[in-house]
Design a protein that fits this description.
By secondary structure, this protein is mainly alpha-helical. It contains 6 helices and no strands. It is globular. The mean pLDDT is about 90.
Length: about 210
């Protein structure tokens, strides 16, 4: 069912509120002994990346569900896909900036950075396939493949650049609270935008594709 006008208004209103909440969470993080206030930049990048990994994963799961016959999941997979690409593009830029500004250079051969570019290229290909493929099952299957590849790379790629669990290894709970505040805020923005996009597609294409 398409969203009511009231529900749509609430979702739109929640987006700037979530942005404000994210700003509050960022400012609540105290300066780090080594990075100073730039630790906020690094932690926001990490929080946004966590949410982005979740949207990629949900796009993949929706793709699997659609291929298996849950036709109503098509527009949800597409909404997750359309949101994931620009967010991953932003996170790619943030990752490069963090290397340049904080560590003084870009380590182009760092495995996690190469993974970032690979996933960005894969996302672009999937969106292009959605636009040109006759069957929506093709990009849906690619969503599932990309999600599986993402988690394989996260679990098995060597981590030569970032420290292991910098937030959770901190003795200051303000870092943990601030980090999860950012995760929750970015996730709320993602949820609102994805629901709006998915429900708009429902209105345009009907309940099933």
């Amino acid at each position: 069912m398409p969203l009511s006008k009231t529900a749509r208004t609430v979702l739109v209103a929640l987006i700037p509120l979530a942005v404000v909440g994210c700003a509050v969470a960022i400012l609540s993080i105290p300066p780090d002994a080594r990075l100073g206030t730039m630790v906020r930049f690094v932690m926001f990048h990490g929080a946004s990346t966590w949410v982005n990994m979740a949207t990629f994963t949900l796009a993949g799961l929706a793709g699997v569900g659609y291929i298996l016959g849950a036709r109503g999941l098509l527009r949800w997979g597409q909404a997750f896909r359309w949101f994931s690409l620009p967010l991953w593009t932003m996170n790619t830029v943030l990752g490069i900036l963090s290397m340049q500004l904080i560590w003084g250079g870009i380590l182009w051969k760092e495995p996690r950075l190469l993974m970032t570019f690979g996933l960005l290229a894969g996302s672009i290909i999937i969106v292009a396939m959605q636009l040109i493929a006759d069957s929506p099952k093709v990009p849906a299957a690619l969503d599932a493949l990309l999600a599986g590849s993402l988690w394989y790379l996260v679990l098995f790629l060597p981590n030569l650049f970032h420290p292991e669990s910098p937030v959770f290894s901190s003795e200051n709970p303000a870092f943990v609270y601030g980090f999860f505040g950012m995760v929750g805020s970015v996730a709320l923005v993602a949820l609102c935008v994805i629901v709006l996009v998915a429900r708009r597609r429902t209105r345009e294409t009907g309940p099933e594709a």
